[in-house]
Amino acid sequence: MIVTEEIEITEIQHSKLPNIDFSNLPFGKVFSDHMFTALYKNGHWSELKITPFGKLEFSPALITLHYGQAIFEGMKAYRNDTSEVVLFRPEENSRRFNKSAARLCMPEIPEALFVEAVRKLVSLDRDWVPTTEQGSLYIRPHMFATDEFVGVHPSTEYMFCIFTCPSGPYFSRPVKVKIETEFTRAAAGGIGFSKAAANYAGALYPTKIAIDEGFDQVIWTDGAEHNYIEEAGTMNVFFRIGDELVTPLLGDTILDGITRKSVIQVAADLNIPVKQRRVSIVEIIEASIAGTLLEAFGSGTAATLSSIAEIGFEGKRYVLPSTIEVRSYIHAISTTLDKIKSGKIADTHHWIVKV
Question: When you count CB atoms within 10 A of the terminal residue's CB, does the N or C end of the chain come out lower?
């Protein structure tokens, strides 16, 4: 499907920028000046627009509100060392977005349109990209069904929308996680590999329980036996056991994280042994007791790389080493990723797209 329609741009008359404190940015609560929208009707995308950020009007019969046909992506724009605004692997977000769309019976977005819409929106709001260390412009592309009809069937019309949020770090310290063995995030044959809104709704209650118990996130396990590690909250997860870095093997219950695949590639570049395989709870707990579990961290667009300080399982807490000297893998990988984004080292994998 080829979209030839130009993006119509209507700029805001008075920017909100002068009222923003960039030294105190809560994640996902401050919104930039503009948003992009496109409508899917009669089998094609049209009405491509960038307009001032604002509210949308819809009927209470909107099919998304009843049957959950909604997907999203998360990505970021950064400033490099010469203050240019850059994106990190946007084409991967486009491809994953379309995998999610296909699974939920939604129309795909042509990659050229997806990337161009992101680039134009970020370019228009480039002054919203923080200059602070660890600051970034979080970008939220999403699509939802817009038929106004209460009946269980795929919608015939959709809206594709993108807005942005200037943000600081998602986690400001290493996190405490609880291994979840009662509730299930995703089951085989389901939608766990997609960024569907429903996946996150189902995670809220068990995460609330974990937070009430003093944890920050849960580590999800397989829905069949609850014996194998899958994800850490809203992140993919890595464990360093001895000299080897391991991460759960992808399947239809685990999100194919863009940061995850970047970590795997950077680890290989740094000659860090990395394996994608099944990782059991027993293996992790035994490694912690034996002192061979040296590091654990989550990876994701919002969190980037986030160290795990403590793992809870069956009422016991297993504390991981806290010194930078021991956590050398996450330090080396995150430093390399930051240098690629900032332009301090060559982008040999062609991950960076200038806005």
Answer: N
Q: Is the dihedral of CA 121, 122, 127, 130 positive or negative?
A: positive
Q: Do the Cβ atoms of 32 and 128 come closer than 8 Å?
A: yes
SS3 145: strand
Residues 131 and 182 grouped into a single domain: no
User: What separation in angstroms does the CA of 136 have from each of 26, 34, 52, 76, 139?
Assistant: 12, 16, 20, 6, 9
For the beta carbon of residue 242, count every other beta carbon within 10 angstroms. Answer: 13
Q: What is the mean pLDDT of the chain?
A: 94
Contact in structure between 340 and 79 (CB atoms under 8 Å): no
Pair (141, 185) in one structural domain? no
For residue 193 the two structure tokens come to 């590999």
Mean pLDDT value across residues 284-290: 98
301 and 200 share a domain? yes
Q: Of 119, 139, 167, which marks where a domain is finished?
A: 167
Domain count for the chain: 2
What would the pLDDT profile of 147-206 be if each residue is shown by its tens digit?
999 989 999 999 999 999 999 877 768 999 999 999 999 999 999 999 999 999 999 999
Residue 285, both tokens: 């707990």
- Judge whether 114 lies within some domain: yes
Helix or strand holding residue 153 (H, E): none
Strands (E) across the chain are located at: 8-9, 34-41, 44-52, 70-72, 75-79, 85-88, 136-145, 158-167, 175-179, 217-221, 229-232, 236-241, 244-248, 274-277, 293-300, 304-313, 316-319, 352-354
Given a contact cutoff of 8 angstroms between Cβ atoms, the answer to whether 83 and 131 are in contact is yes
Please list, residue by residue across 100-115, b when 16 or more beta carbons sit within 10 angstroms of its beta carbon and e when fewer do.
bbebbebbbbeeebbb
pTM given for the model: 0.94
Structure confidence at residue 326 (pLDDT): 77
> Terminal CA-to-CA distance of the chain, rounded, Å?
24
Range of the domain at 251: 175-342
CATH of the domain at 33: 3.30.470.10
Residue 42 sits in the same domain as residue 131: yes
